[in-house]
Amino acid sequence: MAPILVKGEEQDGLETKHLVGFKVVYVFDVSQTDGEPLPPEPDWKSPEKNHDLSQRLIQFAKSRGIVVSFKTLPGDIQGISRGGAIEIDHGAGTKTLVHEIAHELMHKDEDNFESRAIKELEAESVAYVVCRYFGTSGLNSSNYLTFFEVSPQEILSHMDSILTTANKIITAIDHDS
What we know:
Blueprint: E1 2-11, E2 14-23, H1 51-63, E3 67-71, E4 79-81, E5 85-89, H2 94-107, H3 116-133, H4 141-146, H5 152-157, H6 159-176
Parallel strand pairs: 3-5
Antiparallel strand pairs: 1-2, 4-5
Helix pairs in contact: 1-2, 1-6, 2-3, 3-6
């Protein structure tokens, strides 16, 4: 599918275009091209599971009134935060559980008007900090955040809330162990 753009009125000497729909177009399959092979798709999932840490995270969530359930989720979805409930795919790693807990702690408030990109930046950053603290490896957080085009400046501007939330989780889990 390709966009159908029509010319609009000139504004400030520049021609404008407006999207009016989409049309079917033909494209080449990669097998019909020459050149260097395409690089592999970056892995954005972090499948490592730490059973002990996951159990402590589930207890932490429960103590905050958050219900955690494990089920098969559609497509590539690893986890979902539903405002008081979290669903985790059976194939997801411990980092996904932390990520969804972070969403519950930071974003379930109705007054939170941050963009989805910022919410994902915060939750993924909290998950990265917590998992690194507990020694989880294979974290592909930078690849995940690439989908949301977050900048280093955005990361720095949200560092206080990221560290506060990560500290809350780490302190509670370390205290419980």
